[in-house]
Design a protein that fits this description.
By secondary structure, the protein is mainly α. It has helices at about 5-80, 85-90, 95-105, 140-145; strands at about 115, 120-125, 155, 160, 165-170, 170.
C-alpha cells in the first residue's frame, strides 16, 4: 500500500469521524433543545393549573369575607334602626366589639374587623376596645364607598396600617 493511499484512507476516516462527531453534537443539541422546550411547556401548564387553584382559593376566601361583612352590615343596620338617636354609642359599645370579635372568629384569613362612620372615623374594631380615635377619611376604601353606591367587596392596594404600623391589604364592604 502506498503512502498516498494510506494518507487518503486516513483523511477519509478523519472526515467520517468529524462528520459523526458533528452529527452526534447536533443530535445532542437537538435533544437538549427538545427537552428544554418540553420542560418549559410542562412548567407553563403547571403554573396555569396552580394559578387556577389559587384563584379558586382566593374566591372562596373573598366569599367568606363578603358573607361576614354582609352579616355585620345587616346586624348594625338593625341595631341602628332600633335606636336611631343613639347610633354612635351603640356602634362604639363593648357589645358591638364582642359581636365583631365573634364574626372575626369565623374568618381564619381575617386579622381584624372595624366599623367606620360616614365621616371616616373608626368607631369600633376587634383589635382593642375602646377603639382608638383614628380618621380613615383619606383611605381609598373609604373614598370608594363614599363616592360609589357599591355593594361588593372592595380590595384596597397595600396601605400602611396606622395601628399595627405595617403594610396591609384591606377588604371592605
Amino acid at each position: 500500500m502506498s503512502i498516498r493511499a494510506g494518507q487518503s484512507s486516513y483523511k477519509f476516516l478523519l472526515a467520517v469521524a468529524a462528520g459523526l462527531t458533528c452529527t452526534a453534537a447536533i443530535a445532542i443539541g437537538l435533544t437538549i433543545w427538545w427537552l428544554r422546550s418540553d420542560t418549559i411547556a410542562h412548567a407553563s401548564k403547571d403554573t396555569s393549573n396552580l394559578a387556577t387553584v389559587f384563584a379558586h382559593e382566593i374566591e372562596n376566601s373573598i366569599q367568606s369575607i363578603d358573607l361576614v361583612l354582609s352579616e355585620v352590615k345587616d346586624q348594625e343596620e338593625i341595631r341602628a334602626a332600633q335606636a336611631p338617636n343613639d347610633i354612635e354609642r351603640i356602634f362604639r359599645g363593648e357589645d358591638t366589639s364582642q359581636f365583631l370579635m365573634e364574626r372575626l372568629s369565623r374568618l381564619q384569613q381575617g386579622e381584624f374587623i372595624g366599623l367606620v362612620d360616614k365621616y371616616g372615623r373608626l368607631l369600633n374594631t376587634t383589635r382593642q376596645w375602646p377603639s382608638p380615635k383614628i380618621d380613615l377619611w383619606d383611605r381609598s376604601y373609604f373614598q370608594h364607598f363614599k363616592n360609589n353606591d357599591d355593594k361588593s367587596v372592595y380590595i384596597s392596594n397595600s396601605v400602611f396600617d396606622r395601628i399595627k404600623r405595617q403594610q396591609v391589604t384591606v377588604l371592605s364592604g
